[in-house]
Amino acid sequence: MPTKLVLLILLAAFSAQTQAKETPADNYKAYCIQCHGSEGTGKGVNVRDMTVVPRDHTDAKAMSGRSDETLFKAIKEGGPSIEKSILMPPWGATLSDEEIKELVQHLRMLCKCKFG
Amino acid sequence: MKRIIFVALLGFSGATLAEGGMLQGSCATCHNTKGPAAQTLKTAFEKKGPDLFYAGNKYRQEWLVSWLQKPSRLRPAGMYYGGHIKAGVKGDEIDASTLTDHIALSKADATSVAAELMKMKPHDDLIAKEKIESGTVPKQMGEMAFNKFLGCMACHLIEPEYGGLSGPELYTAAKRLQPQYIASFIRSPQAWEPKSMMPNKNLSEVNIQKMVHYLETLSKEDANAN
Question: DSSP class of residue B144?
């Protein structure tokens, strides 16, 4: 009986947390396409005056040169954390680690590529 | 618990309805005038105008009175930029045909609505945390920081023809916004709007103050006076 109760409480806490989780496609659409473009090709509505162009996320060659960990770090902590431009912002205050992990997989889908 | 919230909500809307007829009527069809801010992206995507429920913590009253009589575009790509773009030859561009002009009010209506808006201050706590130091920053220095070191230009115009388009124009920001709000929003956009499309760029206190002063400098330029 007590274990059941604990389980129930755990379940409730877990579902409350996951409720707020967004899909990677929605997160990409909300936060990334402003620079990376609606097709993910790096041609967002913001790029006109940018001195460094956003990465083309459909570029399999460039994207396969990055490990999942590097992509995760770039998204969470921003461009400078992987020696890239400050114009790539940090999203750690916006997205949970789990959402960022899923975004990395979303990028793998866009580039149709793996690391290596 | 649910019932208590419901009753509290009823009491609240009853009180505001009595005073703010227009605001809670026609304005509320596009603006969130009661809070809370969007908690999911679904609601964020559907927003038809910026949140007004913390207007008294955000705007300068005199700006409200004049803008409401003669509204001009502040967000080049409208509310949720993604709903107002189309594929162009060089990439995404703004689809102007999807943007509409804002309703303009008479002087009397603008004055009374602005007074109502200024009473809406649910975030006094966030504002109280900000201390604006007096000071100025030379335009060149501020611009270097804004563009190069902090990367704000990616999403904001700092001149009518320079900068990014997904966020509100900032060359008029200091005329529009209270300095404490500017500081607080830069410190944590998510404290105001959990689903804000502006990231928290973890600025130091020095840089936050610098941005407030820079935006003040920008707004004082003749070219940006309107």
Answer: H
Q: Is the pLDDT of residue B160 over 70?
A: yes
**Residue B219 · residue B175 · CB < 8 Å:** yes
Instruction: List all residues 6 or more positions away from A3 whose beta carbon is below 8 Å from its beta carbon.
Output: none
C-alpha B211, offset from chain centre:
16
Q: Which candidate in A22, A34, A36 is best for mutational testing of the B interface (most B CBs within 10 A)?
A: A34
For residue B50, say if its preceding peptide bond is cis, omega within 30 degrees of 0. Answer: no
Return phi, psi of residue B219, to 5°. -70, -20
What pLDDT does residue B209 have? 98
Q: Min CA distance, A82 vs chain B (Å)?
A: 16
- Angstroms from B104 CA to nearest CA on chain A: 28
More confident residue, B116 or B3: B116
The CATH number for A63's domain is: 1.10.760.10
Tell me how far apart the alpha carbons of residues B153 and B137 are, in angstroms, rounded to a whole number. 17
Rounded CA-CA distance A76/A53 in Å is 19
The number of distinct structural domains making up chain A is 1
Range list of H helices, B99-204: 107-118, 124-128, 139-144, 173-176, 179-187, 189-192
Q: Is A84 exposed, middle or buried (0-12, 13-18, 19+ CB in 10 A)?
A: middle
pLDDT per residue over B7-63, tens digit each?
444 444 444 444 568 999 899 999 999 999 999 999 999 999 999 999 999 999 999
Higher-pLDDT residue of A3 and A80 is: A80
Structural domains of chain B in order of their starting residue, each with its CATH number: 2-117 (1.10.760), 124-225 (1.10.760.10)
Beta bridge partners of B163: B157
Q: Is residue A25 part of a domain?
A: yes
